[in-house]
Write a structure and sequence with these properties.
The chain has four helices and two strands. The chain is mainly alpha-helical. Strands 1-2 form a two-stranded antiparallel ribbon. α1 packs across α4.
Length: 106
């Protein structure tokens, strides 16, 4: 299993758990096979004994992004915990977002 694949599925499992949707609802909404979602959840829980390393992050500036009207161009809001929320504009670079999430989850 590549680290990229593992990071992708960690993000998917995390998003499902935080979404408030059942696994079935989340899988249908995102076009994921339910069995695949369950398999990865099980696989990642079995392999979750590795230690967690911290990655230094520097906050350069705090910028409030103006919210657009709800619809397909509305920004995403990704709440990592009570102290960190990311606002991600539609049309974002998926590879860069995955790279950022990997850095935050290392």
């Amino acid at each position: 299993m590549t680290k990229t694949t593992e990071a992708k599925w960690r993000a998917v499992i995390w998003a499902q758990e935080k979404s408030g949707l059942s696994a079935l609802e989340f899988a249908e909404l995102h076009g994921i096979m339910l069995t695949t979602l369950y398999w990865w959840r099980s696989r990642l829980r079995r392999g979750s004994t590795r230690s967690t390393d911290l990655v230094p992050v520097e906050v350069v500036a705090h910028q409030v992004v103006a919210s657009r009207a709800a619809g397909p161009t509305a920004p995403f809001e990704l709440r990592l915990d009570d102290s960190m929320t990311l606002q991600i504009q539609s049309g974002f670079d998926e590879a860069e977002l995955c790279r950022l999430l990997r850095a935050l989850r290392c």
